[in-house]
Design a protein that fits this description.
Elements (H helix, E strand, L loop, with lengths): L2 E3 L2 E3 L3 E8 L6 H16 L8 E8 L3 E5 L7 H8 L11 H12 L11 E8 L7 H13 L3 E7 L5 H6 L4 H4 E4 L9 H6 L16 H6 L4 E2 L5 E2 L5 H6 L4
Parallel strand pairs: 3-4, 3-6, 6-7, 7-8
Antiparallel strand pairs: 1-2, 4-5, 9-10
Helix pairs in contact: 3-4
Amino acid sequence: MSCSLGGCQLSPNFDVIILVDTSTSVKKKNVKHVITFVKKLLSKAEIDQSVVRVGMATFSTNVHIHFHLNSYETKAEILSAADNITFTHGDTNTASALFSVRKHMLTAENGDRPEAKNIIIIITDGVSTVNTYRTVVEAQLARESGAHIFAVGVGLAKTSVLKSIASHPPDDNTFTVAKFGDLVDLETLTDRLFERCGEFGHLALTFGLCLSLRNTTPFSHMSGELVTPGNAQPLISVVTTF
């Protein structure tokens, strides 16, 4: 389902892949912080098979796909599945993780929809130590396939590689925290993730704006103000673009 407002094509459909680094340097005790962050991130999404779909994988030396975009239909199922993510020892093979997303997860067979905006969120605490030269290449191939990449770094002294993975402009799509316990307070990504108006322009989709406008049903914006077809245009004019 999509609609148009102010020259901006609004599509509330997102296919989201979350990639979590579980290599040895992450440490087992920090996996719970990552899971808490992921669950908070997803709690704001309108998850079901017709609006937002979610898949999740972890990576170290190897890649483990925990569930595909069409594995679960409800938010409750996905949040429960996230609790089952486990720690694995190994190196940091970011290139293989991005390859697996592009070749095995963002496919029609595994739930990817042609009308949905593909989003990859990668959470890592370090640069690749396996197939290092392929990391930037695989990120570029994922972006060229139409995926938008948000890169989240934890405890990184340098962010150049992280920024080379993220979509452009990298400063807008790269997020860093000092330690894993700080992830839960990363509100900038949490607030922005599902607000992008596909690839067409503005941060106009605020969890149901398109649907509310189509049905002429007001809803409450995060500020508390009721948004209706009559007063929605100011929201369009003040938000930023891709």
